[in-house]
């Protein structure tokens, strides 16, 4: 999942500290509700620690009925590469079955394309792609190892 829409109104803020704008606050909750209706409560949420991803994670978690205090914040997910995100995913314990990873583009879109080469969408803000993964261990997850279950954007929820 990509973080929701952030504000660029305060030019004094560095990128890491940007906050969600009103649309982003709304979209994060709507995507969280949608994901809950499709998947239930995830076993784990991992997020970039930047302010906008933290806000997105907490708002989505509230709708996913996932305790905010259990969200894991991984520094590798901020200003990340495909390799960084896959490293975080490979470290997930094998007893965890449903995971929401919240990060930034272009790496979020790159990971989606890596996991399924037929997925070529650019993941817009507050959008999520859900994969069915058929591996016994997260550290075995690799190129073209996932099937797209669904792709959701705020635009498709509102229409």
- Look at the structure and give the mean pLDDT: 97
Shape field: globular
Largest sheet: 3 strands, parallel
CATH class descriptor:
Alpha Beta
Structural description of this entry:
With 159 residues, this protein is of the alpha/beta class. It has one domain (15-158): 3-Layer(aba) Sandwich (Rossmann fold). 35% of the residues lie in helices and 14% in strands. The protein contains 5 helices and 5 strands. It has helices spanning 22-39, 51-64, 82-90, 107-115, 154-158, and strands spanning 44-47, 72-73, 99-102, 128-133, 146-152. The strands form 2 sheets. It has a 3-stranded parallel β-sheet with strand order 2-1-3, with helices on one face. Strands 4-5 form a two-stranded antiparallel sheet. Strand 1 (44-47), helix 2 (51-64) and strand 2 (72-73) form a beta-alpha-beta unit. Helix 1 crosses helix 2. The longest helix has 18 residues, at 22-39. It is globular and about 45 Å long. The two termini are 20 Å apart.
Task: Give a brief rundown of this model.
This protein has 159 residues and is of the alpha/beta class. It is 35% helix and 14% strand. A 3-stranded parallel β-sheet has the order 2-1-3, covered by helices on one side. A two-stranded antiparallel sheet has the order 4-5.
Mind sketching the topology for me?
Layout (H helix, E strand, L loop, with lengths): L21 H18 L4 E4 L3 H14 L7 E2 L8 H9 L8 E4 L4 H9 L12 E6 L12 E7 L1 H5 L1
Parallel strand pairs: 1-2, 1-3
Antiparallel strand pairs: 4-5
């Amino acid at each position: 999942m990509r973080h929701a829409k952030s504000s660029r109104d305060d030019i004094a803020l560095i990128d890491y500290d940007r906050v969600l704008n009103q649309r982003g606050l709304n979209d994060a909750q709507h995507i969280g509700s949608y994901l809950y209706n499709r998947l239930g409560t995830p076993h784990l949420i991992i997020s970039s620690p930047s302010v906008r991803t933290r806000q997105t994670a907490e708002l989505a978690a509230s709708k996913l009925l996932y305790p905010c205090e259990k969200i894991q914040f991984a520094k590798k997910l901020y200003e990340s590469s495909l390799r960084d995100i896959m490293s975080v995913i490979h470290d997930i314990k094998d007893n965890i079955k449903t995971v929401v990873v919240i990060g930034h583009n272009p790496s979020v879109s790159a990971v989606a394309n890596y996991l399924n080469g037929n997925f070529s969408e650019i993941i817009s803000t507050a959008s999520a792609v859900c994969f069915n993964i058929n591996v016994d261990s997260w550290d075995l997850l690799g190129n073209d190892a996932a099937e797209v279950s669904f792709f959701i954007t705020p635009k498709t929820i509102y229409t």
